[in-house]
Specification:
Shape: globular
Number of strands: 12
Oligomer: single chain
Helix content: 25-40%
Bound molecules: ligand PBG
Largest sheet: 8 strands, parallel, barrel
CATH superfamily: Aldolase class I
Length: 329
């Protein structure tokens, strides 16, 4: 007890702080989201995501070589497809020569050891901007899972190491796992977006992929019938446990910062690696505040990333990955 115990002794110098520090973010923690577009020579800044780009396959090749050089070893691929290829069932997602399939091969050719995870959801391919098939104003569950399973096989065939279903249909992990087994992809992993909340923080991402739900009659205007209500915590645990039972190798909480209570709770409950997605809205809030000179970019970035890891994240999907490497030099 005080005065014999003085907690400040362990904070007295940078050396003692380094010695007793519990949480250290490293390049190994990151999963780097990358946005791919059709075309050649394209590297366009996403208007609502400063310093983040959509790139064509030739630039993707350069990018993955660069980030591998920087010490980053895992990417999460997303594609932006043109409106003319979109339909209700996301048919283009299954095209063996589709943009995602070519992107996977591009990354693997450029950098064979880079771990490739792929987004599995219908929204970038859906004419309605939904993660599932729409019928009479509703999102069909089981029919959607079947498409997601085919999509997963197609990604595995192109060389993906992990598929990452981000859709929140019930039972899709089991459907995907069984389909992968049947096709001989026993070694393809599943990172499930298991506790994904219906969040307004996804806005800039939907701009990046032009994937927001459309505003037309008989199409749900939001994703609240599949993504979770942000007021709830028990269902996050239930969702996560069910996904593990169905065969998820890695589970995820999304968004990050506003949901770190959920991250900690899930971390305490489960034995599989927990990923956290620090989403587009979180990224742009800091970029905007820093641009205005209201926050110090790098200090706040490191504080946030450390907080995410301290809360229990084993993996952080983050648009700050390269900024972080730049900062630690
Ligand atoms: C869609 C998907 C979304 C994100 C990743 N996959 C958006 C959504 O659910 O509408 C959001 C990522 C981000 O905001 O950075 N399947």
């Amino acid at each position: 007890m005080y005065p014999l115990i003085r907690n400040r002794r362990l904070r007295a110098s940078e050396s003692i702080r380094r010695l007793v520090r519990e949480t250290i973010v490293t390049p190994d923690d990151f999963l780097v989201p990358l946005f791919v577009v059709e075309g050649k020579g394209i590297k366009e800044e996403i208007p609502s995501m400063p310093n983040y780009y959509r790139m064509s396959l030739d630039h993707l090749e350069k990018e993955v070589k660069e980030i591998w050089q920087m010490g980053l070893c895992s990417v999460l691929l997303f594609v932006k497809v043109s409106d003319s290829l979109k339909d209700n069932k996301g048919t283009e997602a299954l095209n063996p020569e589709g943009l995602m399939q070519r992107a996977i091969k591009t990354v693997k050719n450029a950098c064979p050891e880079m771990l490739v995870m792929t987004d599995v959801a219908l929204d970038p391919f859906s004419s309605y901007g939904h993660d599932g098939i729409v019928a009479e104003g509703k999102i069909l569950n089981d029919e959607t899972s079947e498409v997601l399973a085919e999509m997963s096989i197609s990604h595995a065939r192109a060389g993906a190491d992990f598929v990452a279903p981000s859709d929140m249909m019930d039972g899709r992990i089991l459907t995907i796992r069984e389909a992968l087994e049947e096709e001989g992809f026993q070694n393809t992993g599943i990172m499930s977006y298991s506790a994904k909340y219906a969040s307004a923080f996804y806005g800039p991402f939907r701009d990046a992929l032009d994937s927001a739900p459309v505003d037309i009659a008989n199409v749900p205007k939001d994703k609240k019938t599949y993504q979770m209500d942000y007021a709830n915590r028990f269902e996050a645990i239930r969702e996560t446990q069910m996904d593990i039972d169905e065969g998820a190798d890695i589970v995820m909480v999304k968004p990050g910062l506003a949901y770190l209570d959920i991250v900690r709770e899930i971390k305490n409950e489960v034995e599989v690696p927990v990923a956290v997605y620090q989403v587009s809205g979180e990224y742009v809030m800091l970029k905007a505040a820093a641009e205005k000179g209201w926050l110090d970019h790098d200090s706040v970035m490191l504080e946030q990333l450390t907080a995410i890891k301290r809360a229990g994240a084993n993996i952080i999907a983050s648009y700050f990955a390269k900024d972080f490497i730049g900062m630690i030099g």
